[in-house]
Amino acid sequence: MYGFRLGLFLLITTVVTAEVQLQPLNAAVLRGSKARFNCSTTQPPSVMTWMVNGRLVVTILQASEVFNSTDRYSATNFTTPGNYRWEIVISNVQRDDAGEVTCQVLGGAARMATLSVQERGSVEIVGGNQTKTEGAQTEFQCRAVGWFPEPNVSWSVNGVAYSCNTSSVAQGNLFNSSCTLAVTAVKNSSVQCLVKIPALSTPDSNTVFLTVEKLAKRDQTVLIAVTVAFSAAALLFLIIYGIVFFCKRRKKKSSYQEELRRAQIQSQNRTPATENVRGWDNRGYIGDGHDGHANGGVWYTNHSNKHQAPDGFFHDGRRNHRHMTIV
């Protein structure tokens, strides 16, 4: 141990100017994954040290010997001619690893990078799939639970991106976020909620489906069918009513004409009978005088003479006599 310290002291006292580069300068990884940093120099490093948040975790001597503090930290040599490069790997990254990662080469300036350790939570669209009528308004709510840092939540409908106002609540050292999407049901669509943090190369997502039923058009078709049916029924009723009315009118007119014709026939039939009733004028009739008298309310006439019509008075040659009987 004493020899190691002595050798390190001697190497430090021998200063050689070297250009040092550290990549990446910012790294974001998920907790439990691996973080990788590369430190390169233009001169063969006699001593290279790595520190995480001020803790010495790896030491490399004469580009060959590697001393690490724990098994979670390791270094690999990727040196090529003219480029002396070492990669440090931090396995099973934990939240306390977040912070500064420093590469120091003897004879060169220290280079620092930033490590962010993030948490992946869950993504859920509340309510799942939905079925709506065409033109109806509907809402989808996305919940992102257990994320760090605060996630970015967005929507995609049939591949078209939609932003939304995300509300987040801290729970311990994690965030629960929610975002609501309001859409109009126009056609069948896939609705996707996307949750993104820097440690993810692609967003986590959850997808549901919106099914649009064209009930309005079916209702309109039924309405048209019902309207047509009622219109046809009304038209049929009017036609039947018109036919019945015409028939009754025609029958009434026919009855009137029949009555008129019957009346004419009866009138014609009555004319000869009237003439027969009238008979022939009795030209031989001589009216009685007023020489009667009343007795006890009975009128008496005193005629002893009998009148008769002269011969040849009647057309048929018959002689008719009219006799008066006094009672």
Automatic annotation (TrEMBL):
Location within or outside the cell: Membrane
Keyword Nucleotidyltransferase: no
Signal peptide: 1-18
Keyword presence, Signal: yes
Gene3D superfamilies recorded: Immunoglobulins
Domain Ig-like span(s) in chain numbering: 18-116, 121-209
Residue intervals passing through the bilayer: 222-247
InterPro entries: BTN3A2-like_Ig-C, Ig-like_dom, Ig-like_dom_sf, Ig-like_fold, Ig_sub, Immunoglobulin_dom
Keywords for this protein: Immunoglobulin domain, Membrane, Signal, Transmembrane, Transmembrane helix
GO cellular component terms, A-Z: membrane
Pfam families assigned to the protein according to its UniProt record, in alphabetical order: C2-set_3, ig
PANTHER family per record: IMMUNOGLOBULIN SUPERFAMILY MEMBER 5
Protein known as: Ig-like domain-containing protein
Record lineage: Eukaryota, Metazoa, Chordata, Craniata, Vertebrata
